[in-house]
Amino acid sequence: LNCTVSRLLIENGRVTGVVYSDASGAERTSYADADVIVSSGALISPKLLMLSGIGPADALARYGIACAADLPGVGENLVDHPEVPIIATANGPYGYFRQGQGWRMIRNGLHFKLFGTGTILSAGVEAGAFVNPADPHGEPTIQAFCVPHVYLDRDILTLVENTYGLTVTTVVVKPKS
User: Fold this and answer.
1) pLDDT tens-digit profile of 70-115?
2) What DSSP letter does each residue of the chain carry, written as one string?
3) What is the pTM of this model?
């Protein structure tokens, strides 16, 4: 936990391990018995590949990185999906705030066990829609969804403490850059 991979180890054209810093900052090396799967997200995965010499040869050369594999698609075609959250707070118990803690968690578990219903069955998103405001019959351009939490950042679920309410988020489905 709390480790940061700095580069991939490549031997004979194959990734064999990783170099990383542990929680104390000490550099460590781990070798894989089988495949190495890079799953560092849309931004960090291509960065890690390119720092390891996997990517477009011309881009790697610009930064003085030796090319281990010339793969022109690495770091290309990133499509961000800008979001605009609308937050509505409530004065009383509303939404799923603290429903997975303490006595509420026990109550919700018992409710599910006895009746087969309740908040424990929620996937988190309670309502959603895909729409095209310019052409109701056309391909959707906007996604909207509602979650019974008040949060500031969906990607890391930064919930607003001690606040009941909900967040409705709109997302551009196919942005153009």
Assistant:
1) 999 998 887 777 888 888 888 877 777 667 678 888 888 899 999 9
2) ---EEEEEEEETTEEEEEEEE-TTS-EEEEE-SS-----SHHHHHHHHHHHTTEE-HHHHHHTTPPPSEE-TTTT-------EEEEEEEESSS-TTTTTTSHHHHHHHHHHHHHHS-SGGG--S--EEEEE-TT-TTS---EEEEEESS-EEETTTTEEPTT-EEEEEEEEESS---
3) 0.54
